[in-house]
Target: Cytochrome P450
Amino acid sequence: MITLIVVLVLFLVWWLGKPKKIAFTAPGPKPWPIIGSLHLLGQHESPFEAFTALSKIYGDVFSITLGSTPCVVVNNFKLIREVLITKGAEFGGRPNFMRFHKLFGGDRNNSLALCDWSSLQKTRRSIARIYCAPKFTSLQYDDVNKVGTEAVEVLLVELRKQPMGQPVQVKPLILAACANMFTQYMCSTSFDYRNVEFQKIVRYFDEIFWEINQGYAVDFLPWLLPFYSGHMRKISDWASVIRKFILARIIDQHRASLDPGVPPKDFTDALLLHLEEDPNMNWQHIIFELEDFLGGHSAVGNLVMVTLTAIVKYPEIAKRIQAEVDSVTAGTRYPNLFDRSAMPFTEATLWETLRTASSPIVPHVATTDTEIDGYTVKKGTMVFVNNYELNVGADYWKNPQEFNPERFISEDGTIVKPSHFIPFSTGKRTCIGQRLVQCFSFIILATLLQHYDISSTDKCEVKPSCMAVPPDCFRLVFTPRQVH
Ligand code: HEM
Model:
């Protein structure tokens, strides 16, 4: 008996003294039944503002339950790097929102941006890289320049048909120009602005871009789905009209003329050739990849619209861009991409717009049990990267609330971007379209301001931390200027 007691006491001493591995979850607000902490996000204009406010209470990494989904929000650059770079492979998933499935033929893994990480995604990214991230010295860069400048000339022709000096609904025209830049560059095809089917798909792409940039309660409370059935049907319908158009007006022609013996003439040919060579790619992958990239034009068009709100609000910024473009072109030609290094203020205005619009990074999801800053993160946890804080936090910028493109220009007049400024994210899932965005938006902004003074009689409001403006938005007034 005594031996047994001694053994038990020794076991107890060993057990209590043994170092224990305790699973620490990051602190955070206590969830309410059913809705979790969704109500806390509703108290701010944007969820990202709510995240910043909550980080002041719970710290730079905190847990939050949205509906019944466990989430972690990461609020400083060091920890954001841990998620996106050091542990990028462990956070390569995406949320399973019903809306995402509806947009991509019932399976969000058809989409490049909304799929989980996979070897297929690696292949799809690598096919796209040469076209979507053209190097300065490449043939593709020359192509982007040519396509961009030609499409913007057509835009100028269309603008001249509008009543000058009066408010004009200009977004559809800018989007049509962007759409033609993308279809011409990626598919060697462009469309007349009056083509009704083209107008329709440009509109639907824009509706989808707006849609993807919104948050809905149903994303976290799927039992609300019956109340959203009409909305979900609308999303599926937009996507299927777009898909049919791409198939009939672009892919079918390319298939008929495809010659495997010659190098691909564009991105569509490259995708079709890949389909013939790679047993892991199927027909669906090709259609959805092309659709994803063509859809990128809405992002460019919306960025231009947001930039124009700044132009309207700060006329002195417009004047500086005009001075830059006039001095580079001497009024004898249109600006182009090879003028970029001589037009830092124009480029800096686009960066400053991206900073102040604080484009949110699509949520990531942990694909395995892992940690952030030592806190346990279970597989399936959704991770929000709060780049709103990186873009407007007082720790990162001087006078962050000021719209000041100068902050991106160094003393020697070149563009400088601090490493914490990641509007296109970083790591494995970084934006593939970022170079196209920079090129096309530069050409449009520089050319529009070369030819027009732009103002507005409408209230040009944009939502904080949102790159999208509503499909039906403010009108702008274009007044032709004397080109110097
Ligand atoms: C204003 C314009 C744009 C902004 C601010 C932007 C920003 C972003 C951001 C923040 C991400 C998420 C990265 C992550 O999850 O870590 C992303 C992903 C992506 N973007 Fe963009 N983007 C823009 C335009 C474009 C365009 C024009 C294209 C196509 C030509 C494009 C293609 C993609 C793709 C395919 C992904 C998904 C990458 C992946 O998940 O592997 N983006 N973008």
